Amino acid sequence: MQLLGTDLVCVRGGRQVFAGCNFAIASGQALVINGPNGAGKTSLLRMVAGLLRVEAGRIELQGGNGELTIAEQAHFLGHHDALKPSLSVGENLRFWDQYLSGGCSQTSSALDTVGLAGLADLPASFLSAGQRRRLSIARLVAVKRAIWLLDEPTAALDSSGQNQLAELMHAHLGGGGIILAATHGPLGINASQELRLQL
């Protein structure tokens, strides 16, 4: 499997954010995207996820499941944790499990993996920022998808959470997965490639 971006152009609000962006990432590889604020790191991830229009160029996946779109084979972990505060921790994860996989995953083991098993019945509104991020990461664990699109994934995580995330990323890459991660700091993985976007 290989994820390719060719001559990508991103326009937001009538302003060209970046142009001529190229990358090629194979199974088991990570691409770390860095650059100053406003350079288009999040926009690039959103383009790959199908959440933002590609102004020019193309994004394609060679290999993988040809019957599914790239978005259907990817997880997008953005700045905002996609949680409903009134639902419990367990209910939030079960919602995503049902929505993304038809409810065939082991949500309890995913919560255990990220250290939230003891909080399964707690309303998500009571979680700290770091716990909210851990719950979002549990979605990556519960529902298997080949491509992880991670936007500042270590934000709000303590050192233990960062180490745990690094282990999960290593395991994902070891299983033939692909990671694109926008970050300002180290992720704890050996990136196969680095893409720097400029203002």
Quick take:
With 199 residues, this protein is α/β, with parallel strands linked by helices. The protein contains five helices and eight strands, in the order E-E-E-H-E-E-H-H-H-E-H-E-E.
Overall pLDDT = 93
CATH homologous superfamily grouping:
P-loop containing nucleotide triphosphate hydrolases
Which strands sit side by side, in order, in the main sheet? Answer: 5-6-7-3-8
N-to-C series of helices and strands: EEEHEEHHHEHEE
* Count of DSSP H/I helices: 5
The proportion of strand residues reads 25-35%
- Indicate how many domains the architecture comprises: 1
**SSE-based structural type:** alpha/beta
Based on CA atoms alone, the radius of gyration comes out at 17 Å
Query: Would you state the CATH class?
Result: Alpha Beta
The rough form would be described as: globular
Q: Label the CATH architecture.
A: 3-Layer(aba) Sandwich
Question: How many beta-strand elements?
Answer: 8
Largest sheet entry: 5 strands, parallel
What separation lies between the terminal Cα atoms?
31 Å
CATH T-level fold name: Rossmann fold
Uncertain regions spanning at least 5 consecutive residues? none
| Estimated helix fraction | 25-40%
